[in-house]
Amino acid sequence: MRQKIVAGNWKMNADKAETKALIKGIKKAIKKLALKNTRVIISPSYVNLSTAIKRADNSKIEVAAQNMHQAKSGAYTGEVSADMLKSINVKTVIIGHSERREYFNETDALLAEKMDAVLANGLEAIFCFGEKLEERKSENHFKVVESQLKNALFHLEAANFKNIVLAYEPVWAIGTGETASPEQAQDMHAFIRETISKKFGKEVAENVSILYGGSVKPANAEEIFSKPDVDGGLIGGASLKAEDFTAIIKAI
Prior knowledge:
single chain; eight-stranded parallel sheet; 43% helix; globular
């Protein structure tokens, strides 16, 4: 049975004091929840990862990194390696977020390398992908998503998927206030699961968690999460308010 996941991507937000306060609020709110088969993940900035791990200790909150370099070490100013993340007990990394693709020119080929590095180091990857508005309007969204999956993941083995979470991001619905309808989300998630099934087998496809990431809010979370192939969400802005994030967790 695949897991339900609500993951908060804090992006470049929240200083140290704000990180502490936000985690405190989330911990208090979810303490009374029966989170059976549900994971809660937060992803603060690099500088606050250690603080977050300490503050999330003895709670149901997991801490993930927002990115990772593919090299073990070297002259890569400003980057962070798998060993560095493991040294502070980070076990999960977001790879291929649309903003990394758009603003930092991360290609499918590079993301394939990053996935290799994440998995080789025994870490878990939340792998992100999704189409832009013009690709959706031209009805190429399925082709785009299929290509992103094939280029970055299809060189892997089926066994690798025990350490992979998929996150579908309709890029046109990130930070825009626009949201794919629950039906649009379900159609794409079903397509993703079928694509994985064709390459890696039905068992892998049925057990991999596929998250929806596109302006999920307390008001729409329950309807989106009710769809059979939507296993949770990668939450942006709404994860920066403990009350909103908790409401989304409750919706799952």
